[in-house]
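Incident log, support desk, overnight shift.

02:14 A customer reports that sequence design results differ from what the structure should imply. Their input is reproduced verbatim below. On-call engineer (initials T.W.) acknowledged and began investigating.
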């Protein structure tokens, strides 16, 4: 409901459309300083449509290097420290007395008191991975205090700072630009193309059931337009568009702030990136054209609200964006894209209702297995069980199912459950009956999912009689296999028996053939040692600490995979 109210004020009519953005009075401007002391150039904006999530903050460029000072945006205290080889990598959460929390992620290292505190916690918990909530008096910070150095840790694709602002109490994630950070942007969003998508059985555009793609043209003055053409529509259709935004002196294609589809004075669809709750983030998959995202890496905003889309970044209104025309009826549709600075681009095009549709498409047979998103999806076959809650996919689904036997690949039939380019919202349960699996290997069983581009993902699970059950969050091919191979520890700059100095870093690569690493630990002479593990490169760094005494030491790295296969790497070395 929160969104609706804000939206009605802002999107109530065309009159307000071209005024500067004004929804932000509620947020304190100038309270937070920039977390960096260089000019703010963004490589990612709030609400961008990423695979499986809306981008939840600003990606701030750090001159393509690591190690820049990161400053506390305001007085407050460190409320959470998260250290992970994946995701946000090294991350700090700072609570402020005005009710907001700032988040700083992909850090290279913590600084000052915070660094000392975290270092102790690694030893206390004997773990590189940490997720600790703190009391207000433990690590207070002052506005402008250097709390960390910028980095590229976790799932980061290059040095940058990921910066967020959240409502401390509700944990709602807010667009940091609502708080008035200076980001220079006089460049309006750019439309690349518009697609009209037939929706519903027998729907046609110019006598075809295919998507109609129209590239956006540009004249000498830089104005953009769509080439005028006949667009004869039969049945239902919706509009989607590839649109992005550049900022001043910055080549990155960022997300837009607001996208509207208008029919005269009526707003048929509205997207606006102000805020969202964590539980909403996966709806990004249905706000975009998911298939083109995962198959072609195109970020396409879909101006249609699917029945299963409960996200508040898309305003609830009378129209869900599906358009139908009477024979001979014409409409001019207008797309309006706005960036956070208020720069706006517009595109219009005319459509007309066809007098009759082409005969060949009249007889479209309804598929046998049609599922509605508002009901649970349950499949019970002699060797397959699927149990999915309601609203776990977004729109009516004509489920494709196939079974194939591949005796040298799998310990079960291969069950093809729809296609991997169809998005799934939450986890669901799949159980597959084993076939020919020796009893001795039951504990090594994994569920393999073959996804896009033949990528294989294995999941551990539990046995229920002859069925192996696991939780998954995608469609694709599924079968049972075994993982009996322990992870591999490979030394990169280390030789057993060689001599090293304190302060040197020993580097190792960890890998696993199938189900993936579940844990990794490092010991010297039986004592746990601080180490750094980077998930995206699978590289483990062990700094030889100053407190180690000279002489002979035993290094031990213990790595386990998801079904308990364990490697215990052991080697002696000499400390000079
Ligand atoms: Zn980010």
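02:41 Re-run completed on a clean worker. Output:
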């Amino acid at each position: 409901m929160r969104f609706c109210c804000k939206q009605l004020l802002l999107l109530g009519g065309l009159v307000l459309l071209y005024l500067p953005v004004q929804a932000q009075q509620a947020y304190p401007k100038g309270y937070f300083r920039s977390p960096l002391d260089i000019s703010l150039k963004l490589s990612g904006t709030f609400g961008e449509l990423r695979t499986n999530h809306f981008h939840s903050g600003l990606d701030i460029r750090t001159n393509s290097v690591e190690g820049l000072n990161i400053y506390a945006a305001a007085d407050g205290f460190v409320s959470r420290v998260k250290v992970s080889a994946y995701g946000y990598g090294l991350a700090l959460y700072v609570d402020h007395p005005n009710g907001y929390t700032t988040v700083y992620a992909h850090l290279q290292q913590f600084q000052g008191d915070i660094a000392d505190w975290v270092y102790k916690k690694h030893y206390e918990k004997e773990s590189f991975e940490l997720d600790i909530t703190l009391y207000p008096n433990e690590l207070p910070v002052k506005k402008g205090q250097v709390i960390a150095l910028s980095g590229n840790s976790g799932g980061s694709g290059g040095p940058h700072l990921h910066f967020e602002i959240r409502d401390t109490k509700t944990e709602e994630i807010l667009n940091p630009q609502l708080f008035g950070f200076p980001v220079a942007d006089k460049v309006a969003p750019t439309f690349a193309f518009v697609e009209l998508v037939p929706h519903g059985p027998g729907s046609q555009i110019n006598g075809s059931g295919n998507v109609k793609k129209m590239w956006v043209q540009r004249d000498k003055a830089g104005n953009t337009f769509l080439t005028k053409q006949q667009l004869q529509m039969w049945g239902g259709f919706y509009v989607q568009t590839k649109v992005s935004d550049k900022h001043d002196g910055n080549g990155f294609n960022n997300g837009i702030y607001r996208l509207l589809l208008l029919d005269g004075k009526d707003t048929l669809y509205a997207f606006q990136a102000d805020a969202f709750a964590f539980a909403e983030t996966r709806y990004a998959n249905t706000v975009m054209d998911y298939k083109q995202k995962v198959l072609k890496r195109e970020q396409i905003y879909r101006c249609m609200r699917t029945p299963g889309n409960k996200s508040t970044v898309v305003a609830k209104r009378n129209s869900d964006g599906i358009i139908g025309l009477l024979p001979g009826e014409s409409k001019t549709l207008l797309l309006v894209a706005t960036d956070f600075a208020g720069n706006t681009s517009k595109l219009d095009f005319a459509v007309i209702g066809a007098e009759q549709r082409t005969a060949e498409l009249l007889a479209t047979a309804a598929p046998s297995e049609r599922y509605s998103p508002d009901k649970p999806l349950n499949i019970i076959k002699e060797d397959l069980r699927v149990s999915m809650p309601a609203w776990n996919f977004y729109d009516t689904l004509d489920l494709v199912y196939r079974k194939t036997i591949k005796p040298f690949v799998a310990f079960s039939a291969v069950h093809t459950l729809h296609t991997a380019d169809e998005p799934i919202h939450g986890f669901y349960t799949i159980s597959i009956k084993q076939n020919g699996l020796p009893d001795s290997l039951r504990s090594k069983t994994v569920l393999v999912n073959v996804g896009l581009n033949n990528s294989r993902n294995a999941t551990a699970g539990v046995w229920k009689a002859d069925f192996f059950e696991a939780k998954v969050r995608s469609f694709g091919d599924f079968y049972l296999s075994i993982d009996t191979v322990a992870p591999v520890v490979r030394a990169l700059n280390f030789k057993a028996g060689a001599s090293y100095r304190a302060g040197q870093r020993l580097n190792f690569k960890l890998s696993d053939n199938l189900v993936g690493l579940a844990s990794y630990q490092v010991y010297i002479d039986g004592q746990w040692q601080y180490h750094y593990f980077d998930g995206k490169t699978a590289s483990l760094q062990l700094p030889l600490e100053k407190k180690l005494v000279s002489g002979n030491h035993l290094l031990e790295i213990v790595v386990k995979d998801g079904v308990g296969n364990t490697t215990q790497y052991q080697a002696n070395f000499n400390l000079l």
